[in-house]
Amino acid sequence: ESAAENSANFECTSGFDQHIWKFAQLLSYESLAKLAYLHAAVTETIRLFPPLPLDPKGVLADDVLPDGRKLTKRDLVSYSPYAMA
Questions:
Q1: Which residues, including other chains, have CB under 8 Å from residue 78's CB and lie 6 or more apart?
Q2: Considering the chain, what is the average pLDDT of its residues?
Q3: Three-state SS for 2?
Q4: Cα(55)–Cα(78) distance, rounded to whole angstroms?
């Protein structure tokens, strides 16, 4: 859906709403990509409050990790995706 199609469903009830709507029309993917501080704030927020802090995995069969740790069937292994990136 384009912004023009969305505007048909949006009703500005005050001058403030109209001001916000005009500002929103100026935003695009290219303009958002130039907002370095916004990128830093979002990245830091995700670092501090990750959407998936731990990703648990169940072991289906006996196995050995690359560091030599032995896993047995029905063990649970959890890792942090943030720490891996």
A1: 54, 55, 56, 57
A2: 83
A3: coil
A4: 5
Q: What share of the chain is helix, strand, coil (3-state, %, to 5)?
A: 50, 15, 40
DSSP state of 18: H
Cα–Cα distance, 54 to 77 (Å, whole number): 10
Q: How far is 39 from 34, CA to CA, in rounded Å?
A: 9
pLDDT tens-place values along the chain, 85 residues long: 555 555 555 666 778 888 888 888 888 888 888 999 999 999 999 888 877 778 899 999 999 999 999 999 999 999 887 777 6
Q: Using CA atoms, how far apart are residues 10 and 76, in angstroms rounded to an integer?
A: 49
Q: Report the C-alpha gap between 45 and 43 in whole angstroms.
A: 5
Tokens of 15: 């001058």
d(CA 74, CA 63): 11
